[in-house]
Design brief:
The chain has helices at residues 60-69, 140-146, and strands spanning 8-14, 19-22, 28-41, 47-59, 75-88, 95-108, 123-125. The chain contains 2 helices and 7 strands. 16% of the residues are buried. Strands 1-3-4-6-5 form a 5-stranded mixed beta barrel. It has a single domain, classed as OB fold (Dihydrolipoamide Acetyltransferase, E2P) (Beta Barrel). The protein is mainly beta.
């Protein structure tokens, strides 16, 4: 079978407070929505914003992080994969579908004053290994000597 990739990267804001529940086996699950916006120019030359809403699901320890730190308005960086599930609606008998992003990696980007969680940059990856840079932080002088940045280098 040929190699395939199912990877999603999102940067956006949480639409409403997450819904937290536990499975029958005791695993925690967090469901929440994330809004991403795209800016485009219409035919008249006016700038328009288009918002896309994404359904996200986090499990186990990542769901606990969502429970403790994420609320409506929190800015998040998400890495995950797309998954579509289906079920038969009990009332209508119709087949229903829902496309979701399964969260593999979560970084909180909001600070306390941004209406976010107050963590200011907590990052949680569902991978088993933790890679921390053990080198001492460079001093202010080392930063100044290492990079000359002009206004042209800043993207905004």
């Amino acid at each position: 079978m040929a190699k395939s990739v199912n990877k999603v990267i999102l940067l956006g804001n949480v639409g409403k407070d997450p819904e937290i529940r536990s499975t029958g086996a005791g695993s925690m699950v967090a469901n929440f929505t994330l809004a991403t916006s795209d800016r485009y120019q219409d035919q008249q030359g006016n700038w328009q914003d288009r918002t896309e809403w994404h359904n996200l699901v986090a499990f186990k320890r990542t769901a606990e992080i969502v429970r403790d730190y994420v609320k409506k308005g929190t800015k998040l960086y998400i890495e995950g994969k797309i998954q579509t599930r289906s079920w038969d609606d009990k009332e209508s008998g119709q087949k229903k579908y829902r496309t979701e992003i399964i969260v593999n990696d979560l970084s909180l980007l909001s600070g306390r004053e941004d209406g976010g969680s107050g963590s200011g940059g907590y990052s949680r990856s569902s991978g088993g290994s933790s890679n921390y840079d053990q080198r001492p932080a460079p001093s202010h002088d080392e930063y100044a000597q290492g990079a000359e940045i002009s206004d042209d280098d800043i993207p905004f």
